[in-house]
Amino acid sequence: MADPKGFLTTGREVAKTRPVEERVRDWNEVYVPGSLLPIISKQAGRCMDCGIPFCHNGCPLGNLIPEWNDYAYREDWTAASERLHATNNFPEFTGRLCPAPCESACVLGINQPPVTIKNVEVTIIDKAWDSGDVTPQPPERLSGKTVAVIGSGPAGLAAAQQLTRAGHTVAVYERADRIGGLLRYGIPEFKMEKRHINRRIEQMRAEGTKFRTEVEIGRDIDAAKLRKRYDAVVIAAGATTSRDLKVPGRELNGVHFAMEYLPLANKVQEGDLTVSPITAEGKHVVVIGGGDTGADCVGTAHRQGAASVTQLEIMGKPGDERNPDQPWPTFPMLYKVTSAHEEGGERLYSVSTTHFEGDEDGNVQWLHLVEVEFKDGRPEPKPGTERRIPAQLVTLAMGFTGTDQENGLVSQFGLELDARGNIARDADFATNVPGVYVAGDAGRGQSLIVWAIAEGRSAARGVDRYLAGASALPAPVKPTDRALTV
């Protein structure tokens, strides 16, 4: 244990955010630069070095959290970085974007605020980049085998890096104009500045990974032809089919999927656009969906100068403490105030949209809603609670239903789907097509970034074993593994 009295004498302290009135005027990350370093060693010292570290169970990557906490406490940043990278290809992504199921599973969290695992993680990796500890790791020799990876989100990038380092020649195909998938165009700049992706891509290029942008498998290249060109294929195309809301008025101008709205805001930050074609400026904005994507829409609308922002959630408002049916170490459903929510707006719970109302030009102007209560697991409208709220821009952030099947990728490969519409795979992440594997949301369904990276690493092992007959690559998860929830 780094500090035997750490968790007794030191309280939990997290990263400081910049003042709201300052940060809503720019798109930089919301945290005060450098604010963690003076406090993080003591925060790492709160780790109890448990005999059974349940944080390992909370994290699908199996991160060696007590070990790098100990190194961080001692300010041995090089050793901390080595332990961090032993299980995670991209800790600067997870340290900024993951909701930290590891902290929910922290043993200290039974009766005290848990260790600030995310903050320690992001400090270690930022120090590693600053000190030059993150370097390319090209393979010592090449295998002569080739692999195509479809999709450049966290699952695809993790699989590609692992397979490149194993000696295979890897090409990553991305249908967008830049590498990164939802990391690039789904996550707003204020949550993760894209420079973090850019320097990882340069590391991977130096290791030997090839990148092909603006190429959509299924449309630009026939999937069956791609399979003939490569010795193996990893599908990491994500679950990009957005869940729709089929109510009257859905066709009105101004009602958009979140993944139509957010990428355009990011393209402005990339310098591709001066102003987003879908902007919240001066408008009453309604975000339908109470999850992280909805919060991203809220924060984006604030920065675009929305007149008002309202977020709707059909479920009831979560509590501030664990419910009895969500005991430690499971990941509880708690009321969460993100940085976007700190910046303003209203949040409505237990409400359902009945229809949209527009003007004579077909532009949405009002959203009609009703309060609901759940009976036998289904939401039932409460009579007399109908009302309307102003809505000149509506974003649908209600999650995703599966991988894209309209571009021909699934049909051209001849892939089988499971009961939930995801691409089916066996224990090695292999599909029904020999040499074709699937990792991340395309096979698991919508999930967290840590699960995507873990699946990318695990699928890489399956591919490596298929190509080489054996593999020394790690496989932190099985396709059937599920999050530690109730």
Low-confidence stretches: none
Query: What number of structural domains do the residues give?
Result: 3
Summarize the biggest pleated sheet.
Answer: 5 strands, parallel
How far is the first residue's CA from the last residue's CA? 31 Å
Number of strands: 16
Structural class: alpha/beta
Overall spatial form? globular
Strand order, biggest sheet? Answer: 3-2-1-4-16
Average pLDDT, all residues: 96
What's the CATH topology label of the largest domain? Answer: FAD/NAD(P)-binding domain
Which percent range describes the beta-strand content?
A: 15-25%
Estimated radius of gyration = 23 Å
Question: Describe it for me?
Answer:
The chain has about 475 residues and is of the alpha/beta class. The chain has 3 domains: about 5-130, Alpha-helical ferredoxin (Fumarate Reductase Iron-sulfur Protein, Chain B, domain 2), CATH 1.10.1060; about 145-240 and about 400-470, 3-Layer(bba) Sandwich (FAD/NAD(P)-binding domain); about 245-400, FAD/NAD(P)-binding domain, CATH 3.50.50.60. The protein is about 35% helix and about 15% strand. The chain has a 5-stranded parallel β-sheet with strand order 3-2-1-4-16, with helices on one face. The protein has a 5-stranded parallel β-sheet with strand order 6-14-7-8-9. Strands 10, 11, 12 and 13 form a 4-stranded antiparallel β-sheet that branches. Helix 5 runs antiparallel to helix 6 (about 75-85). About 45% of the residues are buried. The mean pLDDT is about 95. Its EC number is 1.4.1.13. InterPro entries: DPD_II, FAD/NAD-bd_sf, FAD/NAD-binding_dom, Glut_synth_ssu1, Glutamate_Synthase, Helical_ferredxn. It is an enzyme of class 1 (oxidoreductase). It holds the Pfam family Fer4_20.
